[in-house]
Amino acid sequence: MNAQHTPAQNQPVPFPSATVLGYPRIGRRRELKKAVEAFWSGSSSEAALLAAAESIQLATVRRLAELGLTAPSAIPGTFSFYDQVLDTLVALGGIPARFGNLHDAGGRLGLDAYFTLARGNAEQQPLEMTKWFDTNYHYLVPEIGPETRFSLSSERVVEEFSLAKANGTVTRPYLVGPVTLLALSKASDGAPAGFAPLSRLDDLLPVYSELLGKLAAAGAAWVQLDEPALVADLDGLSPHEASTAVERAYAALTATPVGEGRPAILLSAPYGSLGEQTAAVAATGVEAVAIDVFKGALPSAAELALFSGKTLVAGVVDGHNIWRNDLAASAQKLDALRTAGAEHGFAVAVATSTSTFHVPHDVDEEQQLDAGLRSWLAFADQKVGEVATLAAYLADPASVQDEIDEATRVIASRAQAPGVRRPEVRQRTGALTDADFSRSDFAARAAAQEEVLALPPLPTTTIGSFPQTSEVRGARARLTKGAIDAAEYEALMKDEIKRVVDLQEELGFDVLVHGEPERNDMVQYFAENLDGFDVTVHGWVQSYGSRCTRPSILWGDVSRQAGPSILWGDASSAAAITVPWTTYAQSLTDKPVKGMLTGPVTILAWSFVRDDQPLAETANQVALALRDEIADLEAAGIKVIQVDEPALRELLPLRRADQADYLDWSVKSFRLATAGAADSTQVHTHLCYSEFGAIIDAIDALDADVTSIEAARSRMEVVNDLEAHGFGRGVGPGVYDIHSPRVPSQEEIEDLLATAVAHVPARQLWVNPDCGLKTRGYAETEASLRNLVRATRAARAALVAV
Ligand code: MET
Ligand SMILES: [Zn+2]
């Protein structure tokens, strides 16, 4: 089996015929999560953590070899204690000055320094966190300024390579590439206005080269430098700047010939087309380029001609979603590439389009799923098989005809399966008119809401969830196992709701929440209660650090389920998903309790969504189900309803040309979900995890009465955008960073509020944390919320004094 039909000229060691760009790194049973969290809590030692890391790393290498990645350099470096951007940053030593000196006496950044950057300490906020391209993974944002010093500060990547090698496998170390690392960085606090981190490229490159040299010396034949920034239109990075940076960076990194102190370089460009960067990338001296031809387009004939002498690694198998590959379609793409390769003298290899760390490990772990549904799926392990099959196809097309036919048959059966297309759902979306997407004027709504709610200035609220205690999670586990029945579970949840309501009353909040104890996850909970979805048991994927989510599978047409829910066995609650919990909370207090729903875009973004129809159609189906739920909440007397859309920014296409269309359908789906609400019902939305400046028009177009936005971790930057835009409705920029256990002081929150009041009219402002509190403990949450309410009271007094 050999894909090197036209061996590239400049490659001392050929690139393997089949590979993946990355693999899940948290462990099949989330072993890394457990090991890291035990270390953080102080219940295990650094030595225990390192031992766990080693065993996870070696298990991955063994598994990938078993699955067929046996050629040298076919297995990528897949380990990270927290985040790949942080790994690369720490290796290069470019850490923010605000942390003081984290280097040890030997000039190294150890594990403690690494975790301090990720999680903060008593004095310093952690590095900001934001979405990695259009995925639900979050990376830590480097802060680079003129003062940043780069020096080789960690050789973990070399040690990881050596560990695998000592155990018999030559892997392909992975680093975030220099252009992407700087393009994703923000200017440090001390940097002059307009400073561009990319201006430090020339200072960074020698450290990359030094690290590549160490990898070569350790025996690495190939390294992978990931440059997804090249498939995106990033703010502050023009196409010309991007090409120039690519040219400069890779001229420096390939200055040394392969074999004379550097490994061969695979430049990988996942998540879309290289587009106008194709020529710049093809002109570099790297030995191989991985392009995404699943989500991205095949390069044109003229572009392909530029790859002469290289290996083109074709990402034909989707690394980002879970559907079984259409092998016949992939084979066609490979045929085109093979023909062009023969003509222009480049080799072709097969890969996934992105790292597979966006998908779970193994479909075979999900025997509880319907066999039909299971046959439509490919998780990380199955994708390795698909890649191997397609590499075999390149070498000998006839050898895998059976596999190709089988994939074609399964995909055809999926289109016909019951539940995939339901006429009653399609009639409803087909009959929508413009009126279904609009509420009356904001002014009229605001007046009606003021009358019903009569809130003080700077109203306080939380984002929805309260800490998920081990009792709550334990109760859910016992319900699943059948150790308690629905009535017992319901009683336990009610106890928790009462505790949460009482706590908010005691703290003095104005708009309360029920705390969401009944929700394992804000998307999965809805998926479990809607038709068209299924959930997995072991399908965990990393969201950030040790945090994992278990995306549901949205495979069919969506509607609320007919018939009573399993809980609240009373037929009058037929189909309602959230009403009984919310009305129970409302029965305990005179303050308004928010109904909490997850919006259509977020339900799509955080599920594995069907790929057989436009996302807009699926979003409208979900929106109508939520619209029905909102009508039921209103009928039950709920006055404030929040529809969370934390993922609105996440699905934004990476290329500007595609963004307007996305924003149009995504905003419409939110409006479709919420526009049935009465004027007097206050509709909230919540956004987090991203910088929102770029989509502020779309946020405005959501037409929510109140929007809460994550802001504490980026130190209130969003209020500048709101001010510049003239945002006119209610807004709560977060004042408490819930991603870290740190308790913000009253003074600190007062400062943030003062900043907010300076940019946004006080009558529009709300006071709230950045996000839900489910991952926090009660003690720190109580202390933080107490400071939040105290700071609000002080800010109100200051307003009156003015
Ligand atoms: C990631 S956004 C979370 C919103 C949800 N209502 C919560 O409070 O957990
Ligand atoms: Zn949030």
TrEMBL record:
<dbReference type="InterPro" id="IPR038071">
    <property type="entry name" value="UROD/MetE-like_sf"/>
</dbReference>
<comment type="function">
    <text>Catalyzes the transfer of a methyl group from 5-methyltetrahydrofolate to homocysteine resulting in methionine formation.</text>
</comment>
<protein>
    <recommendedName>
        <fullName>5-methyltetrahydropteroyltriglutamate--homocysteine S-methyltransferase</fullName>
        <ecNumber>2.1.1.14</ecNumber>
    </recommendedName>
</protein>
<dbReference type="Pfam" id="PF01717">
    <property type="entry name" value="Meth_synt_2"/>
</dbReference>
<dbReference type="Pfam" id="PF08267">
    <property type="entry name" value="Meth_synt_1"/>
</dbReference>
<dbReference type="InterPro" id="IPR002629">
    <property type="entry name" value="Met_Synth_C/arc"/>
</dbReference>
<comment type="pathway">
    <text>Amino-acid biosynthesis; L-methionine biosynthesis via de novo pathway; L-methionine from L-homocysteine (MetE route): step 1/1.</text>
</comment>
<keyword id="KW-0677">Repeat</keyword>
<keyword id="KW-0808">Transferase</keyword>
<keyword id="KW-0028">Amino-acid biosynthesis</keyword>
<feature type="domain" description="Cobalamin-independent methionine synthase MetE N-terminal">
    <location>
        <begin position="18"/>
        <end position="339"/>
    </location>
</feature>
<comment type="similarity">
    <text>Belongs to the vitamin-B12 independent methionine synthase family.</text>
</comment>
<keyword id="KW-0486">Methionine biosynthesis</keyword>
<dbReference type="InterPro" id="IPR006276">
    <property type="entry name" value="Cobalamin-indep_Met_synthase"/>
</dbReference>
<dbReference type="InterPro" id="IPR013215">
    <property type="entry name" value="Cbl-indep_Met_Synth_N"/>
</dbReference>
<dbReference type="GO" id="GO:0003871">
    <property type="term" value="F:5-methyltetrahydropteroyltriglutamate-homocysteine S-methyltransferase activity"/>
</dbReference>
<dbReference type="GO" id="GO:0032259">
    <property type="term" value="P:methylation"/>
</dbReference>
<feature type="domain" description="Cobalamin-independent methionine synthase MetE C-terminal/archaeal">
    <location>
        <begin position="560"/>
        <end position="793"/>
    </location>
</feature>
<keyword id="KW-0489">Methyltransferase</keyword>
<keyword id="KW-0862">Zinc</keyword>
<keyword id="KW-0479">Metal-binding</keyword>
